[in-house]
Structure formats: C-alpha cells, structure tokens
Amino acid sequence: MPEGHTIHRLAQDHRARFLARPVRVSSPQGKFSDSAALLDGQVMTGAEAHGKHLFLGFGALGWVHVHLGLFGKVDFGDVPDTHRPPPTDTVRMRIAAPGAHVDLRGPTTCALITDGEKGAVHDRLGPDPLRPDDDPDRVWTRISRSRTTIAALLMDQKVIAGVGNVYRAEVLFRQGIDPYREGRAITRAEWDTIWADLVALMREGVRNNRIDTVRPEHTPEAMGRPPRVDDHGGEVYVYRRAALGCHLCGTEIRTASLAARNLFWCPGCQQR
DNA sequence: TCCTTATGTACAA
DNA sequence: TGTACCTAAGGAC
Fold first, then answer.
1. What's the CATH fold of domain A136-265?
2. Chain C positions under 7 Å from a protein CB?
3. CATH number of this structure's domain A4-124, picked from the four choices 2.60.40.2550, 3.40.50.300, 3.30.1330.10, 3.20.190.10
4. Which nucleotides of B are covered by protein (CB under 7 A)?
5. What is the sign, positive or negative, of the torsion defined by CA atoms of A200, A205, A208, A214?
6. Exposure string (b/e) for A59-76, b if CB count within 10 Å is 16 or more?
7. CA-CA distance, A226 to A224, in Å (whole number)?
8. Which of A2, A56, A185, A202 is least surrounded, with the fewest CB atoms within 10 Å of its CB?
9. pLDDT tens across A160-207, in order?
C-alpha cells in the first residue's frame, strides 16, 4: 500500500522499535545477504522518509535505501523472541531486536548506500507535503510553466514527492479540477489549495495508516446510506469507483489509462 | 489452478 | 510507448 503516507509511517514505526538499538539483520530470500551481514549487530541511528523512499541509518556504514514499488510490503511483529515466526523465503530483509521484528517483501529497491548516494536521491525528488520544511513554491514554479496535464504532474516524483495514484485522483476530485487540465491552466489559488489539502490528507494518512478522503458531511452515515469501506481499506470519492455513481452528483465515474496508470474522475464535479 | 490486478519506477526503442 | 521487475490476493474456472 505504498504512497508517501505509508513510507512516513514506516519511518516512525522503525524509529519506535529500533532507533538507538543494536539490531539483527538478515536476508532469508538472499538478495540482500552481503549487506545484511555487514549490518547485523549494528545500531540503527535514524529512519526517515522522502516521498516514497525510506532510509534506515546505520552510522558510518551508511543507509539502507528501501523503495516498495508497486508490490512491496512491510510487516511488523511485536512478539517476544521465543514466539517470533521464522521468516518465509520471500523476505528480502528481516530486522529484529528483543520484542520486535520487521519483514520486508517484494521491494523494488533494498540497498546499502552512502551519505552521498542518499543525497543524490533527495536531489532528484521534488518537495514532499509530509516534510514540514519543503517548499510548495518550487512545485508551483514547475506546474505553472508546464503544458503537461495536472494528473501527470502530480505523479511525477521530480515535481512533487509522495503523491500516488489514490491521492492524485482524490485531491483533484476534492478541488473540482479535471485531471486533463494543463499545469499552466491551474491558478495560484488552486495550487495553494491542492498543496494544503495534500498536507492535511497525507498527515491523516500517516496517523491512520490508510487513505481516507471523504469529508465528514459526505460519509455514507451523514448522507443516510449504509456504511461502507472501499476495498483498498479506506473511504474515497473516485479511486477505483469506475462506472459507479458519484457520491455527490450521481454522474458515472470515468476511468482512463494515462502513462500506464488508471485515472479516475467525475466529469460532473471536475472542471476543465 | 490459472489469470488478472495492484497505492511504482526505470530503462530501451 | 512498451516492457521488465518484485509479490500476493481475489476471482474465474
């Protein structure tokens, strides 16, 4: 379930269990074995996120750089060592300390890198709504000069880091903006609202560890409908609701493929 | 049991 | 634009 909120939550969850503690590191699946051997027994000195990238610090040894890609999964287990389940053979990396372990499966990236290499990753990522010091003006500069659609721009990690297919669809619905509108046709006021909305939605995503975007007044309860949670685990307006009726205006939600990803929007609520 | 799909990205042509 | 990569769940049979 990896959009930026997941990764920031993972950083927090790693810090809570492992920060400043020596940890056991292994790679049952094998692809990370050499680095795991170097790190085994070392102290975890940091855990941070930028967009969808996770960095686990190990002092002078560098950082474990993790990117979940589309399929990557992380499972924590908070059990006494005597009850710790043996890892399955797809676990790329297991980190363990007394009373806690975490398994990483199916990541696109899991590699030990240097400070310099970490810096290079930050340099190619845009501002992240979940990093308090990041500057939305840098994003606005790119968007306001671009003929690319706002839908494509929001998914471009060099422009803005951490937004994925769900937040893209949902923030454009919430702001009433058609996904095919060009970046340069977005007004400054619209951009300010999009950024502020992403900050709020993604912070809530970190808190709840899932994506909910439906405003209180639009929940099924508030609208007198039976309770419902969408099958990806949160409550949303348009994501994966193709051919269903819009919660607000009843228009059929449309879907289209854009740069190999599924786009969802309501033609009734979102303006060109 | 097989097929499809998925909240992602990099690289080749 | 297409393809490769990594894993697991759900649905069709």
1. Helicase, Ruva Protein; domain 3 (1.10.8)
2. 1-8
3. 3.20.190.10
4. 6-10
5. positive
6. eeebbbbbbbeeebebee
7. 7
8. A185
9. 999 999 999 999 999 999 999 999 999 999 999 999 999 999 999 999
